[in-house]
TrEMBL record:
<keyword id="KW-0808">Transferase</keyword>
<dbReference type="Pfam" id="PF13649">
    <property type="entry name" value="Methyltransf_25"/>
</dbReference>
<dbReference type="GO" id="GO:0008757">
    <property type="term" value="F:S-adenosylmethionine-dependent methyltransferase activity"/>
</dbReference>
<dbReference type="InterPro" id="IPR049645">
    <property type="entry name" value="GPPMT_Stmyces"/>
</dbReference>
<feature type="domain" description="Methyltransferase">
    <location>
        <begin position="93"/>
        <end position="187"/>
    </location>
</feature>
<dbReference type="InterPro" id="IPR050447">
    <property type="entry name" value="Erg6_SMT_methyltransf"/>
</dbReference>
<protein>
    <submittedName>
        <fullName>Methyltransferase domain-containing protein</fullName>
    </submittedName>
</protein>
<keyword id="KW-0489">Methyltransferase</keyword>
<dbReference type="GO" id="GO:0032259">
    <property type="term" value="P:methylation"/>
</dbReference>
<dbReference type="GO" id="GO:0000287">
    <property type="term" value="F:magnesium ion binding"/>
</dbReference>
<dbReference type="GO" id="GO:1904047">
    <property type="term" value="F:S-adenosyl-L-methionine binding"/>
</dbReference>
<dbReference type="InterPro" id="IPR029063">
    <property type="entry name" value="SAM-dependent_MTases_sf"/>
</dbReference>
<dbReference type="InterPro" id="IPR041698">
    <property type="entry name" value="Methyltransf_25"/>
</dbReference>
Length: 284
C-alpha cells in the first residue's frame, strides 16, 4: 500500500528535497520580508538598489534595508508576470514550485485568473493555502501537494506555467515534457533560473557551494535550451539578469537577514560562472 506521500515523492532525492523545505520553517530571510506586506516569496531580487536606505538613522537602517530587498523581490515577480500575459480571467495558470505562494497571489491580482500552485513540501502547501484563506481567495488560488514531473492536471489545461527558481531541483527534460503536455498550442512558459555558464566549462566552486547550501543541482545553461527544444517549447525571449540581480545580493550581504550564501552568489555572478536568466517560451 502506498500513501499519498509515496505517490508524490518517488525518489530518494525528491524525499530529501521535500524534507529540506518541510523543516525550513524559521527562515528569517523569507519570513521577515514576507511579514512586511503578506507576500511570502522564495526567489531573489532584481533592479537598482536605492542606496539611500543605508543612510539616515542607524536604528532603522536594517528595517529600511529589508523593505528594499522585498521591493526588489517584488520587481523580480512583476518582471516574470510581464512575460506571462495575456491571461484571461477564465483561464488557468500553474505556479510550478509555488513555495509560500507570494507569486501566485500576485498573478491572481494582476490577471484575475485561476492559479494552481504545486509543491513537494507539505509544509509550504499548508502555509500557502492558509494565506489564500486569509485573503479569501480559496476559490481562485489553491495549492496542492504534487510533483511538477507528474502534476495530474489535464492535457492543455494551463494557459501559462512558470517556474521561479525551482528547476534546479528537477530533470529539465522530464519537467518540460510535463509542461508541454499541460500547455495548449500558443501557451506560454516562463522560467527564471540560476544556471551555470557552460561556455566557460564545468561547475565552478561557487556553484557547487550553492548546490550544497540548497540541496539543489544547478543545470548548465545549454541544457535549458536542449530540453525546451526537445519538448516543442520555443523561446521567444531570453534575458540575462545577472547584472540586474548583483545589487540585490550586495545589499542582502549588508542586512541582518544574510544567510552566508551571499558571497557564493556574488562570486559566481561576478566571474560569470553562474548566470541568472529569464526565458519565455511558447508551446508549438
Ligand atoms: C530561493 O529560495 C531559491 C532557491 C532556494 C532555489 C535555488 C535557486 C538558485 C538560483 C540556485 P529562498 O528564497 O528560500 O532562498 P533564501 O532563503 O536564501 O532567500
Ligand atoms: Mg528568499
Amino acid at each position: 500500500m502506498t500513501d499519498a506521500r509515496d505517490q508524490v515523492l518517488t525518489t530518494d532525492y525528491q524525499r530529501a528535497v521535500a524534507a529540506w523545505w518541510d523543516t525550513r520553517r524559521t527562515d528569517r530571510v523569507n519570513l521577515a520580508l514576507g511579514e512586511i506586506d503578506g507576500f511570502y516569496h522564495h526567489h531573489y531580487g532584481v533592479g537598482a538598489v536605492d542606496l539611500s536606505v543605508l543612510e539616515g538613522p542607524e536604528d532603522t537602517r536594517d528595517e529600511r534595508t529589508l523593505r528594499e530587498l522585498h521591493r526588489l523581490e517584488h520587481s523580480q515577480a512583476e518582471l516574470l508576470l510581464d512575460h506571462l500575459g495575456p491571461v484571461g480571467q477564465d483561464e488557468g495558470v500553474l505556479d510550478s514550485g509555488s513555495g509560500r505562494g507570494g507569486l501566485s497571489f500576485l498573478a491572481n491580482q494582476r490577471f484575475g485568473c485561476k492559479v494552481d500552485g504545486i509543491s513537494i513540501s507539505q509544509y509550504q502547501v499548508e502555509f500557502a493555502n492558509d494565506q489564500a484563506a486569509r485573503r479569501a481567495v480559496t476559490d481562485q488560488v489553491s495549492f496542492h501537494f504534487r510533483n511538477m514531473l507528474s502534476t495530474g492536471f489535464e492535457d492543455g489545461s494551463k494557459r501559462a506555467i512558470w517556474t521561479d527558481e525551482t528547476t534546479m531541483y528537477v530533470d529539465l527534460f522530464e519537467a518540460f515534457a510535463e509542461f508541454s503536455r499541460l500547455l495548449p498550442r500558443g501557451g506560454r512558459y516562463v522560467c527564471i533560473t540560476g544556471c551555470y555558464n557552460d561556455s566557460l566549462g564545468g561547475k565552478s566552486d561557487a556553484v557547487n557551494t550553492i548546490d550544497e547550501h540548497y540541496t539543489c543541482r544547478v543545470h548548465p545553461r545549454s541544457r535549458y535550451f536542449a530540453a525546451l527544444a526537445a519538448n516543442n517549447l520555443v523561446p521567444v525571449n531570453v534575458f540575462d539578469l545577472t547584472d540586474a540581480t548583483i545589487p540585490y545580493w550586495e545589499l542582502r550581504q549588508k542586512s541582518s537577514i544574510a544567510t552566508g550564501i551571499e558571497e557564493a552568489f556574488l562570486t559566481g555572478y561576478r566571474e560569470r560562472s553562474f548566470q541568472y536568466l529569464l526565458i519565455a517560451a511558447d508551446k508549438i
